[in-house]
């Protein structure tokens, strides 16, 4: 059965094409800076948005018309697997990502739930083998069920903590079985609503204990995936413990977890934290912690996580600039479309259109970012702007040879201090020029 109208694999036709089911910029075999677009971008489809979301929002029921909606239970889960691998073939995307509860329904007991998962993982494994598709990362949904009302690893209830540990143990085992290249820890409800009833220190200590247990168990079973933390500032919890990349890095360093984790940075989470996507990527990159990205965008007029497909070329360009500057590029990570079609875009073809738009946006961003790097546009400006630290007293500061005494002596010479313009407007104009001409 076809869930997407028997579409054939989407082809690259170039920017002049008027075909809505063709790539305008994403040419998977085009080489850029020594690697193909496919290798640079490592696109992934998000299982939860593409196959389990139904278009509902806080004010209305689902609107999505999906061919698998007529099924229930395990039959529904099996149909979604078929739909997933059909979409991967249509888009020519190599990777997918999922939460455990995306692929199999919960049972009345943990044992029944695990049996359901085992059956679906076996089916997914068969489809991966026949199609050549791969699992970029998996994770555990520890935020939807009412048991997690007070959190999972940061709960006040030890029974819930134990259940969460069992759930992640199973997810790690399934990640190993499916050859996941990464495993993501997303603290959907790891935070607090009010300090009036919260032992902040205990919750953070317990979160660290939980993550150390995960590291130890992964080693025990030989699961060598890269562990990723996905920062998010708010929603659903008012105060999330992984507010942004800097906060997450501080937590990892305090609890001796930094060697085991990198960041899965999401664009919409960055803006909710009051940052740009490129800011979060830069902070992760300069700390050697850029692992993967969730590609989406938020609506700047709304204060929540709208998870729209990325179409902002300015943002995709600056994101790809950071990724290209990262040691090894995206590495074992990828560009996962943690994005959903709008509630009014309810037909199956809209899911295809949305992914094409997102893939083209990041392909275009890759092209422009590569040219910026080749021409050293920003590097030249930055080198010149910080030239005072390359010689004289500036070189002494950088080399650690300066002290307050030597700096005071230098300042007492009363040499004229001359600052230069940062040329922000000019640089934005140059960036626009590159985006138009590359």
The spatial strand order of the largest sheet comes to 5-6-7-8-10-12-13-14
Radius of gyration: 24 Å
Give the H and E element order.
EEEEHEHHEHHEHEEHEEHEHHEHEHHHHH
Largest beta sheet, briefly? 8 strands, parallel, barrel
Q: Quick check: average pLDDT? A: 97
% residues in beta strands: 5-15%
Structural class: alpha/beta
Helical content stands at 40-55%
Distance between the termini: 42 Å
Overview of the molecule:
The protein is globular and about 80 Å long. Helix 6 packs parallel to helix 7. It has an 8-stranded parallel β-barrel, surrounded by 4 helices. The mean pLDDT is 97. It is α/β, with parallel strands linked by helices and 438 residues long. Helix 11 links the parallel strand 13 and strand 14. 46% of the residues lie in helices and 11% in strands. The protein is built from 16 helices and 14 strands.
